[in-house]
Design brief:
By secondary structure, this protein is an alpha/beta fold. The chain contains five helices and eight strands. It has a single domain, classed as 3-Layer(aba) Sandwich (Rossmann fold). The protein has helices at about 15-30, 45-60, 80-85, 115-125, 170; strands spanning about 5-10, 40-45, 70, 100-110, 130-140, 150-155, 160-165, 175-180. It has a five-stranded parallel β-sheet with strand order 3-2-4-5-6, sandwiched between helices. Strands 1-8-7 form a three-stranded antiparallel β-sheet. α1 (about 15-30) crosses α2. The longest helix has 18 residues, at about 15-30. The radius of gyration is 16 Å and the shape is globular.
Length: about 190
């Protein structure tokens, strides 16, 4: 993990992440009474593998595949000018119509709500879903916008001086959620 940080606690290990995603998959199926017209869209970066994992669990549970897309929100961010002179824009890959579907946005950490606000704008630019829901692995509080998660793996009260970092095998070669102090390392 690059950056100058001090790890304070591991709040989810590999098994904790697996259990949280399994529970979220069951909750998505239950709340939506199955998988009809359901699609998952992962927010880059770590929301993408989490969405794929949720889709795999839904397939195991229901025996039905749900489409999965990838959303890049870089150009929708309200802090774009503070990020960099040349922000890295990656591709949005949603190869299914969103109109009329129940879309579950998937992200790793819910904090201020600004990432989700940007994601909502990006999804609506793709079409008009019937319903948009939000699934996050960790909700750490400190909302700046009136946005809440529909599905939460773990609620973790934090101070604003702390960071919650999700590490996944697909992106980081490790599998855990940690609270750190210091520079955010992803």
């Amino acid at each position: 993990m690059p950056g100058d940080y001090k790890q304070k606690a591991v709040i989810l290990d590999r098994e904790g992440i697996r259990r949280a995603l399994t529970r979220i998959a069951h909750e998505i199926i239950e709340r939506n009474k199955g998988t009809e017209n359901l699609a998952l869209i992962g927010i880059r970066n770590r929301g993408v593998p989490l969405a794929a994992r949720l889709a795999a669990r839904i397939l195991q549970i229901e025996g039905k595949e749900v489409p999965v897309g990838t959303l890049d929100i870089t150009l929708y961010r309200d802090d774009l000018s503070t990020l960099a002179n040349q922000p890295l824009v990656r591709q949005t890959e949603v190869h299914f119509p969103v109109a009329g579907k129940t879309i579950v946005l998937v992200d790793d950490v819910m904090f201020t709500g600004r990432t989700i606000r940007a994601a909502l704008d990006a999804v609506i630019d793709l079409g008009r879903p019937r319903l948009i829901q939000l699934a996050v692995l960790v909700d750490r509080g400190h909302r700046e916008l009136p946005i809440r998660s529909d599905y939460v793996g773990k609620n973790v009260p934090t101070s604003k001086k702390e960071n919650v970092s999700v590490l996944l095998d697909e992106t980081d070669g490790d599998e855990k959620v940690v609270i750190t102090e210091g520079e955010n390392f992803y």
